[in-house]
Amino acid sequence: MAEPPERDPFPEFRLDSDAGATFVLESKGKWWHAGFHLTTAIVGPTILTLPYAFRGLGWGLGFLCLTVLGCVTFYSYYLMSKVLEHCEKAGRRHIRFRELAADVLGSGWMFYFVIFIQTAINTGVGIGAILLAGECLKIMYENLSPNGSLKLYEFIEMVTVVMIVLSQLPSFHSLRHINFASLLLCLGYTFLMVGACINAGLSKNAPPRDYSLEPSGSSRVFSAFTSISIIAAIFGNGILPEIQATLAPPATGKMVKGLLMCYTVAFLTFYSAAVSGYWVFGNNSNSNILKSLMPDEGPSLAPTIVLGLAVVFVLLQLLAIGLVSHSYALFFHFHGVEVAFFLRLQNRFIHKLRMRSWKNNQLM
């Protein structure tokens, strides 16, 4: 007896061309291009919250958590890159997280679960980047024109228009120059902030230093978990398969070099920002170290030109981060979900037709 036709378990992965594939599958990148993309995805203005994270842990636990979480996430990304290489050698190239998850965990509900989580993360990052960039513009505007009439929402609209224009770039690979500039910008504002903190710590207006933790046990536990969550989130990266897909074949070993570049920049910036900020402000560290350097009362603890330049660098990198997140969300999720949904319906319809034809042949 003839066997019934088998259903393809991953029909949506056989699509030769869709918007997401067109966006990412310009596979011409070098390993340092992957390093640029990874650095933009991981190293961002959240660096400025690290002194606040140390505030809830202290010196010892702060260093321990930053080091352990850095090593754990690096190893996780390393393993993921190896799995992607293995799947590609087996003839199953994955350019999206959800495809990898469906291949490893099954193509049922996990496929849409990963879509939901990844879309939420990247959309949130994109929206947050626009809001923070608008706030940076407002800070600059208020310093230049204290009596100006422009409101925050108007700066957010300006940033949104810029994002829309920049998101017309044709491929993920074409973002490599912008992401290289992002790498330089994160180094720039980190070193400016570190220099400003050292200057503040050595000046006559240096704030009193107190490195003690919360007095009550419950508050100490809550602060510790908050700090750990900040450090864990700061290493997050939701687009590693998409970045690896931009590498020119053969991709073997290139992603590891890109990860090493990214984590070299990450540890250089993370440790310097955390140590210098916490050294100066201790348990009075603000959630944004720039606000600690510009207190509401009293003189600024750093030269205005240095702080202004740091804000400009933060603003420009937020544009790069928002561009990556918006472009990714547009091409990989909003179109990809639509394609996957209709392809699944189409696949079910074709499968029923094949089954009906097979049954008719059996009766004949």
Automatic annotation (TrEMBL):
Keywords: Amino-acid transport, Membrane, Transmembrane, Transmembrane helix, Transport
Keyword match Oxidoreductase: no
Record keyword Ribosomal protein present: no
Entry-linked InterPro entries: AA_transpt_TM
Domain of life (superkingdom): Eukaryota
Domain Amino acid transporter transmembrane residue range list: 28-318
TM annotation in the entry: 34-54, 60-79, 100-132, 152-169, 181-202, 222-240, 260-281, 301-324
Gene Ontology BP annotations: amino acid transport
Cellular localization per UniProt: Membrane
One Pfam assignment: Aa_trans
Protein name: Amino acid transporter transmembrane domain-containing protein
